[in-house]
Specification:
This protein is an alpha/beta fold. About 20% of the residues lie in helices and about 20% in strands. Strand 2 and strand 3 form a beta hairpin. The longest helix is centred in the middle third of the chain and has 15 residues.
């Protein structure tokens, strides 16, 4: 383990020892930039290009002109890290399901936590992001939280997690809140922020079944704005300037990120009333385009929400890659939307035994249960193209799924590991890499590509 990774992990351990009755902690352990690591402490390796990769070797660094999309696997939530062509960085979600709870009634069995049971998910995210950040950079430009569910922003209210008190405000060291201490970000984008609503009452007005910890998230945001100057914005529907290149935008005029859904509204569609829709349906969705390459991520806004089908019809074109809606759970990746998108690559960050939906498990609807018969995976698979057109990658597959549906599981391109999409300069071709998630070495397990992008 090199010096930088050691400092990150020890910094995280120090944060976990803090308690509310101690003096206000020092904010954010220093995250050393790559040029601060002593030369004699690391192995000397020949510089490799972004596509000079081999099985068994650590994935080569991002290079200017490329677009990197990293699905980081902790087994406890979603987290996707982007490095844009000019080095602008974005993290979408940093989920952390409660440490305990898999034994409670109605909760589905989980996959193993990665890289091990003792490493908190936010530490896994921070260590991974720091490893792949561009040279001499130790922060991120953007953090975006799609919606208020624990597996997307963390669990700030949990007795087993350290509670941090700063300036009289308290929140749990979990998910996005804890990630900020290890890898700070310059701007936070969520679905609800308003300077006139510091308690985030908008969340309760527009969603239901949201996570109870949003109040502590509100305290974190208030502190970070006041003490650290964090910029915070509500996602702006239809905006192509809210997330933009910040280093050299003129060099990549064909790169754009468009917010195409938020709070139940879809660009170009009319919703009569979005109050009290399910929290999943409030998810922020954005389309990232680079030349002929298009990548879609929509949080948990699948077909079983108010935005899934309207969003597909609003985008109305083939795309190269997407994050699976709602971890590929029940009725989220319907034939209707898959016939429109026809993605060459789908990445699903799954961590329960009903993800992807194979129609074998009981589904919870309020206080009752009923058997799903959707077989979402099979329906989506049949929706378009030949087998070679569909490359579906899963960060995790529960052993129960693999045992019960071997003929379906064999269709999956990967069933465990971090998944990286790396797009060549100009956006005409891309590769997919699967990385070992059992340690912090990020060695390549699988290389697929090149994939040719759809012509506009």
């Amino acid at each position: 383990m090199n010096i930088k990774r050691y400092l990150i992990l020890t910094g995280a351990a120090a944060l976990l020892l803090l308690s509310c009755d101690k003096p206000e902690p020092v904010v954010g352990p220093d995250v050393p930039s790559k040029d601060e690591t002593p030369e004699d402490s690391v192995e000397v390796e020949q510089v490799r290009g972004p596509f000079d990769n081999e099985i068994g070797k650590t994935l080569s660094p991002w290079a200017e002109g490329c677009l990197d999309i990293h699905a980081i696997n902790s087994g406890r939530g979603e987290c996707t890290f982007f490095i844009m062509p000019d080095g602008t960085t974005l993290c979408c979600d940093a989920g952390e399901i409660t440490k305990e709870g898999s034994e409670k009634a109605g909760d589905h069995p989980r996959v193993d936590q990665k890289p091990n049971a003792n490493t908190r998910p936010y530490v896994t995210y921070a260590t991974y992001i720091t490893h792949f950040l561009p040279e001499k950079v130790n922060y991120m430009d953007y953090m975006l939280m799609t919606h208020f569910h624990n597996d997307h922003f963390g669990t700030p209210v949990d007795a087993s997690y350290t509670q941090v008190t700063r300036a009289g405000l308290t929140w749990g060291q979990s998910g996005i809140m804890a990630l900020y201490d290890m890898v700070p970000f310059d701007k936070m984008i969520d679905r609800a922020y308003s300077p006139n609503d510091t308690k985030y009452e908008f969340v309760a007005q527009t969603g239901k079944n949201y996570s109870s910890g949003y109040g502590q998230y509100a305290d974190f945001i208030y502190w970070a704005r006041s003490a650290k100057g964090l910029k915070v914005e509500r996602a702006k529907l239809g905006s192509t300037s809210q997330i933009k290149l910040v280093n050299d935008p003129s060099a990549y005029p064909d790169f754009v990120v468009e917010v195409n859904a938020v709070n139940g509204y879809v660009k170009g569609e009319t919703q009569e009333d979005t109050k009290q829709i399910a929290e999943n349906g409030t998810s922020i969705s954005f389309l990232m385009s680079y030349g002929n390459f298009d990548y879609l991520t929509s949080g948990d806004g699948g077909t079983n929400t108010v935005i899934g089908a309207p969003l597909a019809h609003a985008i109305n074109k083939k795309i190269e890659a997407m994050k699976a809606h709602h971890h590929f759970a029940w009725d989220t990746m319907s034939e209707e939307i898959m016939k429109i998108y026809q993605p060459k690559v789908v990445v699903s960050q799954s961590f329960y035994d009903h993800q992807p939906d194979m129609g074998h498990d009981w589904r919870c609807y309020g206080s009752s249960y009923e058997l799903s018969t959707s077989h979402e995976f099979q329906n989506a698979w049949k929706a378009y193209g030949e087998e070679g057109d569909k490359n579906w990658y899963f960060t995790n597959i529960h052993p129960k799924v693999a045992e019960m549906y071997p003929s379906e599981v064999i269709k999956m391109k990967s069933r465990n590991g971090h998944v990286v999409i790396r797009v060549k300069e100009g956006g005409d071709e891309f590769y997919v890499y699967v990385l070992d998630d059992n340690d912090f070495e990020y060695k390549v397990l699988q290389i697929d590509g090149p994939f040719t992008c759809h012509a506009e």
